Amino acid sequence: MMGPAHSLSGAAAWLGVGAAAAAYGHPMPWPVLLVGALICAGAALAPDLDHKAATISRSFGPLSHWVCEIVDKLSWAVYKATRMKGDPRRNGGHRTLTHTWVWAALLGAGASAAAITGGRWAVLAILFVHMVLAIEGLLWRAARGSSSDILVWLLAATSAWILADILDKPGNGSDWLFTAPDQRYLWLGLPIVLGALVHDLGDALTVSGCPILWPIPVGRKRWYPVGPPKAIRFRAGSWVELKVLMPVFMLLGGVGCAAALNVI
């Protein structure tokens, strides 16, 4: 799928988690619902860091281009080192390592560890990165073009600072789910894991599938492209994605938000 659909699906997924949490008697404070949805929307773009034309590779200027090249080479090296006889030969690393559950888990664990050990500045950095990605994904038309990059960064930095201040207030969610004094913001890794996995599931619906199960072998393939029957898959950016899935994601997100806030 393309960036906007990925971001919408990520936000909808976290709002759905908020609805489930409310149903099971552990509701999210509204700042957690909001921040988690934005982080999940941003994190749903992160697996495409292995593709030089992806939204995330353009979101932070030369820095993200440089990181993209490194991740692409790393992914390709891991693919070549672990491929089985049934896996085809490849010339690049797109849709390999970064599109697996292992990568999603590592990203989430790393973010949680940074949040609880790095203090406020680490939290701000995590929020800033994901606010930039959320803006680029959800407001792609307004954020399109290099001339708007600085405005996006300023908006993301301001939003990160304000949201961190709100979360820090008692009862607003810095200690949601994990209540020990040394576990504040431990939950920040959850929307990051969820966003990456939702991205992978979205890509699994397309014609190429997604090797989300790696390194678990399936038959003669370690990089098995998980997906539904090929007859019901679609191409990224097709009318199915734009006219069907994106409206569905918006509807599900709205319902999830209302349920999470006990409006319905």
Structure explained in plain terms:
With 264 residues, the chain is mostly helical. It has helices at 3-23, 30-43, 55-58, 62-82, 101-138, 140-143, 149-168, 189-204, 239-260. The chain has one domain (3-260). It is built from nine helices and no strands. The chain is globular.
Sum up the structure in keywords.
264 residues, mainly alpha, 9 helices, membrane, Metal-dependent hydrolase, YdjM-like, transmembrane, transmembrane helix
| Total individual domains | 1
Q: What fraction strand? A: under 5%
Largest sheet report: none
- The topology string of helices and strands comes to HHHHHHHHH
What would you say about this model in short?
This protein is mainly alpha-helical and 264 residues long. The chain contains nine helices and no strands. The model has no long low-confidence stretch (mean pLDDT 90).
